[in-house]
Each structure stands twice: as C-alpha cells, then as structure tokens.
Amino acid sequence: MTDLQITGLTKAYGPGAPVLDGLGLTVPAGSLTAVLGPSGCGKTTLLRIIAGFLRADAGTVALGDRTLSGPGLHLKPERRRIGIVPQEGALFPHLSVARNVAFGLTGPGRTARRRRTEEMLDLVGLAGYGDRMPHELSGGQQQRIALARALAPEPALVLLDEPFNALDSALRTGVRADVRAALRATGATALLVTHDQQEALSTADLVAVVRGGRVAQCDTPHEVYRRPADPWVAAFVGDAVLVPGTADRGAADTVLGRIPLMDPPGVLRQGMVLLRPEQLRLTAADAAGASGTVTSVRFYGPDAVVTVEVDGIDRAVRVRVPGSTSARPGERTGIAATGEATLHAASV
What we know:
By secondary structure, the chain is α+β, with helices and mostly antiparallel strands.
C-alpha cells in the first residue's frame, strides 16, 4: 500500500486565474479519498496530472517514495503504476471480458495471467463472465469489469473518474458498494473524482472539497458534514441553515433559541450559526419559542423538506421532516433546534 502526496500543484490553461492554484492533498495508503467540487474547480485537471496525461506548471506529485511529477521531472503514464477507471467503463469493444481484464498483464505467463483474470472477475462478482463481450453486459457490469481491469496489474494507486455517472440512481448505489468492497479487499489506495455529494459522503474514507483550484477542507465525511470549514463548504455538501447568533459560554443565542456550539469561541462573538435541516423540528404554532409561516413543502418519499419564513429573521429556513408530515403552505408553525451547531463569521 502506498500513500499519495500532492504539494503546491498549479496549472493554468491561459491568461487569468489558474485551474489549480497551489493545491495540496494527502491520500493515505489503503484509503479511498473523494475529491468533491463543482464543475470547473479543477477536479479533472488534478486527475489528469496525477495520471501523467498532463504536465503541471508547478508542484509535485509523489506516490510513496517515488516522485511522479516535479520540477524537471515528468514520468510517463505507463511508468506510474496507476490504474484508471474512466466514466462509462471504456472497455475495448472487440475484446472479451477476460481479455479486457488481462489487457495490462504483460509480465507473467499465460497461466498466471488467466489465474489473475479469474481472481479479478471473482472479486467484482462476475466469475464466469470471461467469454462474454462488453456489449452483452449491463452498464453496472461494465463498470465492475473496468475496475477489475484497473486492479489486475496491482497498481500503487487507482483513479476513479466519476465512474457512476452513466448509471441510473437505483443501480448506482449497488455498484458503488461493489466497487468499495473490491477496493477494500485488495487494500488499494484510491482517489474518486466526483461532483455528487452523497456519493462522496457515503463511499469515501476522506472527502476533499475543492474550491477555486484549492482544497477548502479535507476530513472524514462525518467531520466535513458536521464541522464544515465555512458556509460555502456546508452548502455544497448538503443543505445548510444559517441564522444570526451571539456566542457566549459555550452556546449561541438565536431566534431559534439557545443552541450549543461544537467549537465555542473563548470570547463573546457574533456570527452565523450553522445547522442542518434535520436538526430542526416543527412544533405547535402556539408553542413557546420561534414561529413562522410555511412557504413550501417538497416531498421525497421517506422524508420531506419544509421551508419556513421565520419571524424575526430575513431569511427562510429548511426543515427536514418525515414524509408523513401534514404541514401545508400558508400554515403557521413553531420551529425549534436540536443538537449542536457551528459558528462562522457573519461576513462569510
């Protein structure tokens, strides 16, 4: 197992702001790290530089004790020991499943290559599919074969470039779980590039949120969601509820009541208190505390999001409730907060 170290990575395609602007990232050995960010933030450029398809303007990429890219150094892709799982599988249509998986196995003899191919097919749950052609497989099966092909040569690193985009939502969840299990079984170090927040949070060991060519925050999915670095990160990885508050003695006074803070400041401080919609609950309209008017209800099946214009603040808040809620637009409702929140500067 080998860790990936990226330091000061910079890349520009022309005048103006660079796509990558001194980006730094560490992917621990044996982990799956998701690089999450909006379109244009530099995710694909980062992946192409790591793979060796693109030269960086500055910075270094190292895999264990081997420097892959740096000042005056650029190893060719085939010398990097990196496996790639692209979007939509990209299998060779004229080769059987077995020959696709064995494509990168050049060193061992025929018997060893056949054995390794069978091991990889079994690993991704497709034992016995070796004689089939790619067009005979479903989209999810093709992605699993693409993973088997990437893992077969025992690479030091596996790059997954938004590999689940072409799958429908029902299939995507199962294939993600299969891919995650296969990576764990081999102990591979992997980097997943995605713009899907739920995919990153549910699949990765670490989530690196990229903004403007830099990593805005890198932590476990739980910490990125519960302790976002700033309101932008909070809003990008999930719905964020921001209300003005004043921190004092470990909690913040807000229109929603006094809310405990996870990382309270040592002095009296005003700012924006950040909560998640599932931390809010609707109460009786005449209950003590905050109240407001329901403006919309969005139904998602098991749950629903109710938007409430709260008296005393100039912004609406979203409340995640069970799908059986009886709230209706125009109704008055009470609203209360539960759990801990984080405090951020009012200007952010």
